[in-house]
Amino acid sequence: MKNYSFLLMLSALAIILFNACQTDLPEADVLKSPVSFGFSLPAGSESSKVASNDFSLVVNARVTITKADGTATEYTNAELELYESDGAFYAEEVFLPLGDYVVTEIYLLDGEGTTLFAIPEAGKLQDYIDQQLPIPFTVERSSTMKTVVLEVLSTLGFTPEEFGFDPEEIVFELADFFKVMLVEKGNPQNILNGTISINKSKTNNLIEIDSVTKVLLKEEYKYDDRSYLKANSPGYLELLTFVGRDSLLQHKEDPLIIELEKLKDFYSFKIGLNAFHVRELQGTMVNSLEEVVKARITIIHNGSELKDYNDVEVSVVEEEGYFFLEAIDLPIGDYAIQELYLQNAEDKTLFAVPFTASYIESYYTYSLPPQFSVSGGAKSHVRFFRVVDTRGFLPSEFNFDPDRISFKEEVLPFYVTLQEKDKPSKHLTGTLISGTNAEIKKEVSYLTRVNLFEGEYYENGDVYIKVQAEGYEEFKFMYPKDSLLKHHEDNPLVFELEVRPLVVEGLYRGNLVLETQAEVDEFSKWHCRAISGNLTIKGRSDAEDQISDLAGLQSLTEVRGVVSISDCDNLSNLNGLENLTSINGRLVIARNTSLQNLKGLSGLTILNEFTISKNASMVNMVGLENLQEVGGMVLESNPMLNALKGLDNVARMKTLWIEDSQSLVNFHGFDTSISSLRTFSSINNRNLESLQGLILPACKIDGGVEITDNWSLESLGGLDFSEHLASSVSLEYNSGLKDISAMIAVKTIGRKLSIETCHRLTSLNGLENLISVGGERNTESLELFDNKKLADFCALTSLFTEGKIFGYDIQLNAYNPTEADMKTGKCILRD
What we know:
This is Receptor L-domain domain-containing protein. By secondary structure, the chain is mostly beta strands. Among the domains are: about 30-165, Immunoglobulin-like; about 175-260, Immunoglobulin-like (Sandwich); about 265-400, Immunoglobulin-like, CATH 2.60.40.3540; about 410-495, Immunoglobulin-like (Sandwich), CATH 2.60.40; about 700-830, 24 nucleotide stem-loop, u2 snrnp hairpin iv. U2 a', Chain A, CATH 3.80.20. It is globular and about 120 Å long. It starts with a helix and ends in an 8-residue tail after the last helix. Residues about 1-30 and about 45-50 have low confidence and may be disordered.
């Protein structure tokens, strides 16, 4: 852009000189030289602390250049095009007379006029860029074009004010961020340098933290409702916690302060013990950890045995029903257990960790030897390991030396195979019954190992064996013990079973599976009234005659096991089951895409367990009008279900679980008769607005309640609670919940009260009568976490001053009172 005022002055001066001297004078040439501006990013700008805009989006630059004495040049707020050369970006050249100059403004803009890169004013953001405005340069006589490289800073995550710019004139791209600071726990004046990472997955995104640090919330941090935040500083324990994006955004001004605990030389480490039983070999007669009094252990560190823990004897102690080795002190590091035997008072090994490449590895699939780390964090102080019950195995099968290690009981194994008589290729699955009192049962099939224990399977050298398989005649025989021991893995004892009739006097003996329409129609020819086992009606995708009609089941009145109807995409109703009046097991109706209701089940009055899952077209429960009592009902992932119509006469229900019913808005039109309900769960019903009408006013929930991800639910109105709840109350991720006053009657909660990420909840009104939460074994029986507007905790005053509370966790709320605050009346955040 030319300076037209300057040109006018030159013209006027020329006229005056012409008139004064009346002679022509030649115009002096001004020597100019080309200057190009190149652009670079500060070192370290690719870190997560200083995220960068995309340079490829820049289309032009706006620059202001003055002479060193402050005189303006023609390049005042001048627009320059940008071009790329060998991966670097440059502005088109400008032509300046020889001399000293200063760049006072530089903006790199995208096509919409948003400033993506710039240089801040001096004294602004000096921690991020070495050279700030104004930037001097000199134009000298030269045969080549002068290039001035300017270090520009991405504006992402900053404001124009932070650059020293007028926000009325300069526009930056908006970005979310928060501020954070690391301090020493117990010594907050000691500010630490370190790193944090924020992620859901294992993606590494380390962010360096120095004093109060501004951190951008980038897309690659994989946010959903909550993500992991991990903080580290040399010489301090790593801290890992859950954090929500909304929670971090509360710290744009006041930094999030993370307290890190200083490392110690040694940490007390406890090994917990979990018994691993191979019941298919051991049956119900298993060893118990209660019999264990001591252990022998060898620990290795970096491939070498620890001198103090090389085949040493340690005590085994019981604490609140759990079993541990006595605590050991270890420095931070990685370790492995090379040997671990748990013994009784007679030095018999009851449990052990088998050696690698042992026979037991086919059952015990965990890594050998067990490994653990001591990091100093709270979660590393205790580590539970599974130890295998030695009953039913030989020491050699653990790869142990039998002269050194002996087990409690001697076992004598043999192998069996079941097959159909006259069809040796048809292998069967059944039950082997044995024992001196015929009380030992074992599932057997092709090449199954059977263990003999003296006094249990055999007595006086003889073994009684009975074999049963569904659809086959029973087999019985008395075998000499010595003859059985000859049947090793390569020479199994073969039981040949004869086929028996399917239906006898109207009873189908065993489990029945129907997968095609032809099989359903065939059932009508059997005149079967009852099934002794399970009835499974399951559509098969490769069948030519898909199940579409259950009329062939009209004779059926009783099923003594489970009834399952699933994957029948052509089944539009359940007509044909009207005469079914008794189901002793569960009723499961799942993944039937055309089924809209339950017409056809009118004969049912009582059900133990009832699951309705993933039926894409089901809109209500019509067809169950005669149902009066249900043990447990699960309504899961039925997207069109909008009413409970059909359950109107159900009076008693132990548990009701409703999940992923996105069409369920309320319970209007459900003529409720529920007078008894123990537990209620509503999970991920995001459009459910009200619980009114679900239960009768006289119905008092006395078990527990879980309400999670119900975004439209504003209150618990419609639920009535008993004074004493045996289980837990969990209210989590209910973004619209603002009223829990329906809990006013509750005095005690047996396990846990958890209220988390309910951002409209401002107070805990409704918990005024609560005087006890949890029990002796609950370390955190009260959890109030990440409720952004929760500032009033006064309803819990009686709980903290007069009641019983067994551990609590109160964090990331609008106010987070301590126990001392609650006891001294500081129960509410005041302005």
